[in-house]
Design brief:
Number of helices: 2
Bound molecules: manganese (II) ion
Distance between the termini: 31 Å
Number of strands: 26
Order of helices and strands: HEEEEEEEEEEEEEEEEEEEEEEEEEEH
Helix content: under 10%
Shape: globular
């Protein structure tokens, strides 16, 4: 499911007075998600929030469900300047894009779509009435790649690190001698943590990165602070390891990366740097330009939201 920013998110999408909070020394700064609907899917939007807009290049995190899938899914819509990372805990989605890829994604697999200068996709529900639970994240592309070619990659297998009572899946980046095959344009980490009750995994970190923890199920305790679904715990920069206390069992995600080079301007599905780029993408999508191609989906395409400014 796409976590497209809707009009309500424009309040946090970009306000010149609302610049990114810089990376801080180690901390545990818990922010609340905003409840939103993406199509028929209830989501908890954990990034961007006013207090915290990026964690490394991670610029968007939607925790979808858990719920029962209904409705067709999300129709064709465009993206620029980002990678979408789709990660399912339960259920599946069918990705269809303007590059010609059609790919079902299932739990444990990772879809990475690169927008570059422009791509469009749809995310269809394949089975009505079944459990549906996942996360969609966006990674902002750096200047060096954000005007480049779009791409799509499906990763059916990812490195796994199994500790007693804890399964780590390395979504992106490197950990403990393992490296994920998933493309990263800037130094990044993403780890899925499935931990049984009474465990306390310690994960090695790059102290040059800033990090955050998102909990999808259960509860983890970080430096004495409870983190539960609907909250993002920002951990700052400068940690070389992280201990997660898991008293009752949990499913969580660790994300992090080198502090990003810019504060992206995020409007609807566009990750840009200024309003002229957003206006150009908006006009091109509304005009049906070749820039975004066509998506072979039966669902109606989604109209773009006019930008607040054009320059
Ligand atoms: Mn999307």
């Amino acid at each position: 499911m796409s976590g497209d920013l809707d009009r309500a998110d424009s309040t946090v999408a970009h306000d010149p007075a609302d610049e990114a909070t810089p990376a801080t020394p180690p901390c545990v700064e818990v922010t609340d998600a905003r409840e939103a609907m993406v199509g028929t899917m209830p989501v908890r939007r954990l990034l961007p929030r006013r207090a915290r807009r990026t964690v490394g290049a991670w610029c968007f995190v939607d925790h979808m469900g858990p719920t029962t899938s209904d409705g067709p899914g999300i129709g064709p819509h465009p993206h620029i300047g980002l990678h979408t990372v789709t990660w399912m805990l339960e259920g599946e989605l069918l990705h269809i894009d303007s590059l010609g890829y059609e790919q079902v994604i299932r739990p444990g697999q990772l879809n990475l779509m690169t927008a570059g200068d422009g791509v469009a996709h749809a995310e269809e529900m394949t089975s009505q009435g079944s459990p549906h639970h996942g996360v969609q994240l966006w990674v902002a592309q750096p200047e060096s790649t954000r005007h480049g070619e779009p791409d799509f990659a499906h990763h059916a297998e990812l490195p796994r690190i199994d500790l007693p009572g804890v399964d780590l899946t390395l979504m992106i980046g490197s950990l403990d001698g393992h490296s994920s095959p998933v493309r990263a344009d800037t130094p990044l980490i993403g780890v899925d943590v499935a931990a049984t009750a009474g465990t306390a995994p310690t994960i090695g970190l790059d102290p040059g990165f800033e990090h955050a923890v998102v909990v999808m199920e259960g509860r983890v305790v970080v430096d004495g602070t409870d983190v539960t679904p609907g909250h993002l715990a920002y951990l700052g920069r400068g940690r070389d390891e992280l201990r997660l206390d898991v008293p009752d069992g949990a499913r969580a995600m660790l994300i992090g990366g080198e502090p990003f080079e810019a504060t992206p301007l995020m409007w609807w599905n566009y990750v840009a740097r200024d309003w002229s780029e957003v206006a150009s993408a908006h006009d091109d999508w509304e005009a049906g330009s070749e820039r975004f191609g066509t998506v072979a989906s039966a669902i109606d395409r989604i109209p773009s939201i006019a930008p607040l400014h054009r320059s």
